[in-house]
Each structure stands twice: as structure tokens, then as C-alpha cells.
Amino acid sequence: MADMTTALGATRLPNPVMTASGCAANGKELHRFFPVSDLGAFTTKTVMRDPRSGRPTPRMAETDSGMLNSIGLQGPGIETFCVDDLPWLATQGARVLVSVAGGTAEEFGEVVDRLVTSPGWPAVVGVEANISCPNVANRGLVFACDPVSSERVVRIVRGRVPAGTPVFAKLTPDVTDVVAIASAALGAGATGLTMINTLLGVVVDTDRLRPRLAGVTGGLSGPAILPVAVRAVWQVTAAMRAGLLPRAPVIGVGGVRTGADALQLVAAGASAVQVGTATFNDPSAPRRVLAELEAEIDRHGFDRFADVVGIAHERTAAP
Amino acid sequence: MSGGVVRVTGELIAVRRAGAYHHLTVVAPGVAELAHPGQFVALAVGGPTSANLLRRCFSLHRVKPSGTYGGTVDVVVSAVGAGTRWLTALRPHDPVDVVGPLGRAFPLPAEPVPCVLVGGGYGSAPLFWLAETLRERGCHVELVLGAASEDRLFGVVEGRRSADAVHVTTDDGSAGTKGWVSDVLGEVIERTKASVVYGCGPMAMLRSVTEVAAAHGAVAQVAVEESMACGIGVCMTCVLPVTGADGRTRMVRSCVEGPVFRGDRVRWDALDGGITRVPDDAVGAPRPGGH
């Protein structure tokens, strides 16, 4: 059995598989199917400062090998999260990656300020700044579409999260040059990157001849986007290897359904992998993907998971 | 850790036509033993490599905790899309991936009060089991079953065994009274002196069931039909605005807080034309400009 531990900055995790933000609520629902402490980390649903109703329904449209969602970051706000959700996860022994967001850069900071005072804070192994949720009324508010906005948010979050606790910036592939955004986030002090968020899409209802989603646009997720996620992880990893970006851990996410899918992201450069939409199909998907990934690492004869991270860059045939 | 829910690979043992619908019986060990009327199961469709990832949710028509094959669950399926067509094309002994039982069941009255159960189309599926459960508790039970046309009714014959009386309506008059369930419901409530009306079916019907029940002094308990992606409470797609005991409206998940709600707590005013708005007074509603 290979050593599955992985390092995210100064944090070491017993294995590299996590839930993906917004696909696992805050743990209680999935804990009915497997112990949340089995995972390397549990990534929570993005929390904002205030309670938030989310968008009108329909909020979901199934697509080939995927789905569109326009939830709109529904949630009870940071206070309830700190009092109820995070302490519960801590009690279960989960290692928690907390996804945070704000309507403004300053709101990200306010959320973090409250977060660090939660009695559950010792369970937190990192903070993921969700600067790339597509489900906002104003596309101009997708911070990760712009290097300057990305840098501003990450700098505030990094400044408020205690040193030693990693900060990850979650990026969207819906940009011209994801390496430029990655550079801005890492330049602002992010420990690493989470890639990718959903891609913006529209589905038309062919009976009503109008958009299926009440909010018109939604985020595309599921196995259909796996190659996009692998591409994004590949591009930033290649830039790091070429010395164009500082070396930093990448959490791969997008379309993972099996251990072999996870292995693609790892071989492209991801030090950890999140399982998202597949959980809707299989409530134990994150736990299953971990077992399958371990089997894949063993099948290839590696002793350490860490030795596989980015290996595809070394095995790429010369042009 | 199960928390009252299991995920099992079951086995289909029978598919029968029932008018416009299909009636499936699946061996699903562990599900039947835990289930109550009003709860549902989430079935995966298309097999392990399916391009249709989202589970299809069906209210439990009946359960048998122990049978020849182990516990079974019955569901009624209307084959209208890729997933439901795949399910209804399954053959006996094919595997079926089942998660359940899910959601909150119909609350049962503490006293043996008269009850009216209203079903629209195959929404009636859970009502026969509910009727039998209520009658075991001494309740007088009458059913009102409605549909667009006779072939879209479900369970009229079964209803005559399960309940004290059955009333049928069809939009086109092809069976029973021509019209809607709401046209006859008031009279049934008055005559039976019902204090609880249970409803399951399309949202527009549930709204009128709630209004008619209130007009005749009865409480409505309705099982809503919201499209769900996961059925287990993690995807946040099946929300609808419901007013809580504190008087505040929240967008709540119909898969875990429902699917059964008190009818007078659902914000029907926010539902229109297939879209459910977030009421302006809902907790965390968007400020001008939206979110």
C-alpha cells in the first residue's frame, strides 16, 4: 500500500482526496454514508458574511455527463457556520478546508475574521477563497476573471488567515490566460491554487423555448469538464516547472468520478483532488475515489503518492 | 452512521404497465424496513458510466419489509425523459442503485380523525399505503384521485381496497366527475368532517388543495414535486420558499425538510409558470441588483 500523504504548504494530510465546495453541504448529510474523517480534507460549502437565500428555481439542468447549477451561494452565513457547522466537523475529526466568499474584497476579510474565532477553528487545515463562483448577477463580480481583483481579494484573505494556515485561491477556467490569474493569486500570497470552478453555460428548454434555469446562466460541472480541469492544472504546473510561476501546491477539481479521473489531475500536477458533482450520483463517491486512487497508485507500483504528482510532464514525448 | 438511510444495489423483480405509467418492484434490502409513507427513494439511471448523473426521485408507493426476495420497494414511474425511459426498460434481475428512504414522511394524526387523501396523476402513488396506515389507526379515509384523462389516473382500483371511498375526476370527463380534484374536494371534506387533507401531485394542484382545505377548516399536508439532483440534501437545487414556525420564510430543501410540508406554510405566491421566485421577505433575499 502506497504512502498516500500529501503536503499543502505546511499542512500534511493523510490522503489527497477531498469533497468539493458546494457538493457536500457541511458534512452531516454525507456522514450518513461514510465517515467524513476518512477524507484528506472536507471542503465546506462557500460561506459568506450574511444569510443568503440563493437564486430562484429551477436552479439545475442536467446535461450530457454533467449539469448546470445556479444555486447562487445559498447559505446561513458565517455566524451559523462558526457556531454549528465547523464545531460539528471538528467533533467528527474532519480536517476542514473552509471555502469563503464575499460580494466585496473586504467582505472576504470579515468572513475570515469571524472564522478564526470559531471554537472549531483548530480543525481548519486551510481556507479556500472562492473568487470564481459564476452565479452572481453581475459578471463583473467574478474576481477571478481579473488579475487585479484576484490579487486584492487574496491579499486580504492572506492577511487575515493566521500564518501557517494555507490559503488557496479557487480559479475559473473561463479566462483568456489562467496562468496570469494564477500568477496574481500567488503573488498576493496564496499558498496554492484550487482549479477549477464551474464553467458558465446556458441550457435552453426546447418545450418552452426559454432558458431552463430561472437565473438564465449556470455553472457547468460533472465528468464533461474533466479535460478542462486537467488542462488548467497542466498549464499552471507547466508554468511552475518552467520557472514562470512560483512553485505552489495545486488542488485539482472538476469532473472527477473515478480514481482514474483523479489520477489524471494528479499526473498533470495536482497534489490533492476534490470530488464534486459525482457525489450527487453516488453519495459515497469521495470515499470511493480515494480507494480507487490508492489502487491506481499501487497498480503503477509507486511507493508514494507524492511521486506521481506532475509525473505526466516528465513523460511527455518531445515534440 | 446510517442515519435512517441506506444505499444499496437492488434488483428489479417486476415491471408492470399501469395506464400511462410503469409500476416497478425492486428488492432493496434495508430500505423498506426504515420507510414511512411520504418518503422517497433516489434511483441512479443509466448504469455505472451513465451520462445522466442525477438521481431520479420517486415517492414510495409501497414497501414490503420481508418477502421471498428480501425487502422490496415499489415505485411508479412516468417515462417522459431519458432517465425514466431507461428505468422502465429494465428487465427483471437487472441491478438498480437505490438510496433511501429519504425525506420526511406524512405526519399522522394522534387521534382517529377523518382524513381525505388527494392525488394528481401518478402523484397518488404513496396515498394507498398512507390510507391503510391511517385506517389501521382508526381513521375514516376517503381518496380523491384526479388526472387529465382516464389513462393518467393511478390506483383507482387499488384505492377502493385501501380507503373507505374513492372519488375520481378527469379534466376531459373520460372517467368520474369532469373537472379538477378541487371541484369535489370541498364537498368531501364537509361530508366526512375531515380535519386533515393529504395531497401529492403537481404544484398547482397542491396549492388549490391547500386553499380548499383551509376554506373548509382542514389542515393540508402536501408532498411537493420539486426537481432534485441528489435527493440527500447536498446540492441545494430542490429548494422552495416555506414559512417556518418563527414566521420567517426561508428557501428550504424539499428533499430533507420535505417533501411533505404543511400546505399553509408553502409560499405559493412565489410560484408561477414553472419558476419559483425568492420572496422579497425571505431570509437572505437578494438586495436590489440580485446576487
Automatic annotation (TrEMBL), chain B:
Gene3D superfamilies: Dihydroorotate dehydrogenase, electron transfer subunit, Nucleotide-binding domain of ferredoxin-NADP reductase (FNR) module, Translation factors. Its cofactor is [2Fe-2S] cluster; FAD. PROSITE patterns: FAD_FR. The keyword Phosphoprotein does not apply. SUPFAM superfamilies: Ferredoxin reductase-like, C-terminal NADP-linked domain, Riboflavin synthase domain-like. Binds 1 FAD per subunit. FAD binds at residues 56-59, 83-84. The keyword Iron-sulfur applies. Residues 1-108 form the FAD-binding FR-type domain. This is Dihydroorotate dehydrogenase electron transfer subunit. It comes from Phycicoccus flavus. The lineage of its organism: Bacteria, Bacillati, Actinomycetota, Actinomycetes, Micrococcales.
